[in-house]
Design a protein that fits this description.
This protein is of the alpha+beta class and 579 residues long. It has 3 domains: 235 residues, PAS domain (Beta-Lactamase, 2-Layer Sandwich), CATH 3.30.450; 45 residues; 191 residues, Histidine kinase-like ATPase, C-terminal domain (Heat Shock Protein 90), CATH 3.30.565. It has 15 helices and 22 strands. The strands form 6 sheets. The protein has a 5-stranded antiparallel β-sheet, sandwiched between helices. Strands 9-8-15-14-13 form a 5-stranded antiparallel β-sheet. A 5-stranded mixed β-sheet has the order 17-19-20-22-21. Strand 14 and strand 15 form a beta hairpin.
């Protein structure tokens, strides 16, 4: 009879194989990814260093060109006065002696007028200047950069030479570069960044670098090789990076970059042993991770095989449906054990959750409506109080003929203000209500508060709260214009900015001190007088935030004695059906 494999054992084997396979796969992919990233980041970092070196050389090239042009200008201006030319050459050399070895003029007989102390004394003709003079004479409109060579007075150097145009007799301007200064800069980078840098000519000669950190290099006669590969072969290879081995078989990585201004290449040669050691440590870590994964797979598989059964899968299915929003799921587990009890308890819990959600939604909706009504009821009495005061002042001042105008405006404002608070109105209607309000205030204070409307096209029908703007305008008159003590314009500016709409009330009155702005939109139960004066702004701010969220509401920007801007911020989505 064939032996039957129990379900727990099957489950154990399946889970063990699955978990272990996942760990092995993830470990291998992670190792390869990290290995690739380490190499990529290392190459990227070294390329950044090469770019910085190239920028340094470009700046130096510009400096050398400037020196050549300065000498050319000076010589042409003093062509008949040799002593002046010598003095200016000396001054230029002393000014730039940190990175040049000499600045001088080469005559056609190969004698010179030199800037350095030595060449001011020893100015005899030298045959090694002939290639420089000939190159300058051949290319009279460009600057010629020589290959590195051993100069009698400047040592190992590179010369930049330019023909002196405009001179009555053939002459060339020359600058010997101080390669020691350039090499010292490269050594600093080598030491700090643990790199091995050098400048190389197209023929493979070392201009500067490598001397203090030869590493895997074989340096002879100002050139080098790595293993059996010469410098010229390295420069002739395509691409910017390559891998080579030394005679001892050690791997090295090479990066090369042509310079922008000079006909040179920047070479970085780096021993791969440091990177290989890091990767070796990483490999050891991942082997340990695989061992830990093997043990973890055994442990997890044992637990799952012991405790997971079909009832738990059924319960998990029910929970998944609830997670997706289906609170009416009816997956039933007909068991008389703990799983059955858990399933029935879960069903009862779902019913209670559904009922609580329903009750919560009803409660939140009722609370929201009540809060809006309370906020609206706070604004209307505040406005009515001030308007009745306006009528009283008109009668007290004996301006009986204006009473009808004030009452007509008051009737229009009251009809507008006592309507349903939850009903939104268009910006056009709010502007009309503000116009009625300002008409009352102009009569009350015997002032002229000019209402200026700057409304972006299409925003006249934008839906806003009823009684949004009037309390803000009231604050502008009462606080900005000292309760009618002074007069000025009141501007209402509405515009879109991205996905929001901004409606601003702007006055040019007294303004608000900076230390008070942050408290205006918050309540302070201990300061009843301040609270009474700013009830309109505070409640408008609360209405907007209650409807649209904490990111909307009022913003106040003020420059005392210049301008105050109260900005109401709404979502532009109101146009999509919230009118």
């Amino acid at each position: 009879m064939r032996r039957r494999i129990s379900l727990p054992l099957k489950l154990f084997l399946i889970v063990f194989a699955f978990v272990l396979s996942c760990i092995i796969l993830i470990s291998q992919l992670s190792y390869r990814y990290v290995q690739k990233e380490i190499r990529t980041n290392d190459i990227y970092y070294m390329n950044q260093i090469l770019d910085k070196v190239d920028q340094y050389l470009t700046v130096n090239f510009s400096s050398f060109q400037t020196i050549l042009f300065s000498v050319e200008t000076s010589v042409n201006a003093n062509i008949d006065n040799t002593e002046v030319i010598k003095k200016q050459l000396r001054e230029l050399y002393e000014l730039n002696s940190n990175y040049v070895s000499n600045i001088y003029l080469i005559k056609s007989d190969l004698s010179i007028l030199g800037g350095s102390t030595t060449t001011r004394i020893f100015d005899e003709p030298l045959s090694d200047r002939k290639p420089l003079f000939d190159a300058a004479d051949k290319n009279r409109r460009t600057t010629y950069v020589s290959d590195p060579y051993k100069s009698k007075y400047s040592g190992w150097t590179v010369t930049m030479v330019r023909y002196l145009n405009g001179s009555p007799f053939p002459m060339a301007i020359a600058v010997d570069l101080d390669l020691n200064a350039i090499e010292e800069t490269l050594f600093k980078i080598n030491k700090k960044e643990q790199m091995n840098l050098a400048l190389i000519t197209p023929s493979g000669k070392i201009i500067a670098g490598f001397s203090e950190n030869r590493g895997p290099l074989n340096i002879q006669d100002h050139t080098f090789s790595i293993g059996e590969t010469s410098a010229e072969q390295i420069l002739d290879t395509t691409g910017t990076s390559l891998q080579l081995h030394t005679k001892e078989g050690l791997p090295v990585s090479i990066l090369k970059k042509p310079t922008e201004k000079f006909n040179w290449s920047i070479i970085s040669i780096n021993d791969e042993s440091r990177l290989e050691a890091a990767l070796s440590r990483l490999e050891t870590f991942y082997i340990g991770l695989l061992v830990a994964g093997f043990l973890l797979s055994l442990f997890i598989s044992f637990l799952i095989a012991k405790y997971i059964r079909n009832p738990l899968y059924a319960l998990k299915t029910k929970m998944k449906r609830v997670e997706q929003g289906d609170l009416t799921t009816t997956v039933t587990i007909k068991r008389n054990d703990e799983f059955g009890d858990l399933s029935r308890a879960f069903d009862r819990m779902l019913q209670q959750i559904v009922e609580l959600i329903r009750r919560g939604e009803l409660h939140n909706e009722l609370e929201r409506k009540l809060e809006i009504q309370v906020l609206q009821s706070q604004i209307n009495p505040h406005f009515l109080y001030n308007t009745l005061g306006s009528i009283s002042n008109v009668i007290r001042l004996g301006q009986i003929e204006k009473v009808d105008v004030v009452i007509a405006s008051l009737i229009a404002s009251l009809e507008y203000g006592i309507a349903d608070a939850s009903e939104k109105v268009s910006l056009r209607q709010e502007l009309q209500n503000v116009a009625d309000y300002i008409a009352i205030q102009n009569i009350r204070y015997n002032r002229h508060f000019n209402l200026i409307e700057r409304i972006e096209d299409g925003l006249m029908d934008f839906p806003v709260f009823r009684m949004l703007l009037q309390p803000i305008v009231e604050n502008s008159i009462f606080h900005g214009y000292n309760g009618g003590g002074i007069e000025g314009p009141i501007t209402i500016h509405a515009y879109r900015k991205g996905d929001i709409v901004m409606i601003e009330v702007i006055d040019q009155g007294e303004g608000i001190p900076a230390d008070r702005i942050q408290h205006i939109l918050t309540t302070d139960p201990s300061d009843l007088e301040v609270k009474r004066k700013r009830i309109g702004l505070h409640n408008i701010h609360g209405r907007i935030r209650l409807h649209y969220g904490e990111q909307f509401g009022l913003q106040i920007i003020s420059i005392p004695k210049e301008i105050t801007r109260v900005r109401a911020v709404f979502p532009v989505g109101l146009f999509e059906g919230d009118a």
